[in-house]
TrEMBL record:
This is LysR family transcriptional regulator. Residues 1-58 form the HTH lysR-type domain. Belongs to the LysR transcriptional regulatory family. InterPro entries: LysR_HTH_N, LysR_subst-bd, WH-like_DNA-bd_sf, WH_DNA-bd_sf. The keyword Cell inner membrane does not apply. GO terms for molecular function: DNA-binding transcription factor activity; transcription cis-regulatory region binding. It comes from the Bacteria. It comes from Rugamonas brunnea. SUPFAM superfamilies: Periplasmic binding protein-like II (SSF53850), Winged helix' DNA-binding domain (SSF46785). CDD domains: PBP2_YofA_SoxR_like. Keywords: DNA-binding, Transcription, Transcription regulation.
């Protein structure tokens, strides 16, 4: 099994299309198709279901993808280790919570790009659980997630201290306890978000039932709906301050057990040598 074949398989799996994978790899489509077929024949299994809407990975393909990620990462690590003076280069896959990406990363990424122009930054946003899974499965090189991080196989570096606040419509009276917003709708990120778990736990521990729970894909949508009076939400104060939203929403402070949360930079302990990752971790170190 050649590493080049695994790179082609991985690209097809991630793109869901031979055509898109060929474009990404700068190969002709017929070559990608042929190499994929050869790999399937050598393994004796179908790695994809061919449908009119593209390719859908099979259970066997999904298992191989986990191994491919590990093998390709190890190969890249070994190559880099043979050149210890090598400057950071290549692709660096970063995961971040959406609010962290918006409030904390723009200046960091811009400065990193100026200092390390040979590094190709790829940013993926999502809730903490999704990002942790990405690092554990070698889909991401590192991620910025909310503490706590209950995974012994991950290194952790604290980088930001966030204060979470409850936001409501602009005319809402002061909120000191969940009873003050009882039966209000909760506007939250999708499942797997640590901030969402904190908000739901705050209600549950007080024995207060919220109204409906509505999921959103972006913090802008959450803030806009809060301002329109649709419900309440939990949001980092940094986002509110940077966007000067004081006139459109009301901000309510919360008990420290709910409000105080650390953002952690995490990566796999068993990936020992990764110059671009080390450089990015160093770039965030002054923020600790």
């Amino acid at each position: 099994m050649e590493l080049s074949a695994l790179r082609i398989f991985k690209a097809v799996a991630e793109e869901g299309s031979v055509t898109l994978a060929a474009t990404r790899l700068n190969r002709v489509q017929s070559n990608v198709s042929a190499r994929l077929t050869q790999l399937e024949e050598s393994l004796g299994v179908a790695l994809f279901h061919r449908t009119g809407r593209g390719l859908q990975i099979t259970a066997e393909g999904d298992r191989l993808l986990a191994y491919a990620d590990r093998l390709l990462q190890l190969a890249d690590e070994a190559q880099a280790a043979m050149r210890p003076d090598q400057q950071p280069a290549g692709q660096l896959r970063i995961g971040a919570m959406e609010t962290t990406a918006a409030a904390r990363l723009p200046k960091v990424l811009a400065a990193f790009n100026r200092q390390h122009p040979q590094v190709d930054l790829v940013l993926e946003t999502g809730p903490t659980d999704h990002l942790l899974d990405g690092v554990l499965r070698h889909r991401l090189d590192l991620a910025l997630v909310a503490a706590p991080v209950p995974h012994a196989e991950l290194e952790q570096q604290p980088v930001f201290a966030e204060e979470l606040v409850l936001i409501t419509g602009p005319a809402h009276p002061p909120v000191r306890a969940p009873q003050d917003v009882a039966r209000r709708n909760l506007l939250v990120f999708r499942s797997g978000c640590t901030y969402r778990r904190r908000l739901e736990a705050w209600f549950a521990e007080s024995g207060v039932a919220p109204g409906r729970i509505s999921e959103f894909g972006t913090f802008e949508a959450i803030i806009g709906c809060v301002a329109a009076g649709m419900g309440v939400a939990l949001m980092p104060m940094e986002i509110i301050s940077q966007r000067k939203l004081g006139r459109t929403i009301q901000v309510h402070t919360l008990p420290p057990a709910v409000a105080q949360v650390e953002t952690m930079l995490v990566w796999r302990k068993d990936v020992l040598y990764h110059p671009a990752r080390a450089a990015f971790a160093a770039a965030l170190a002054p923020a600790t």
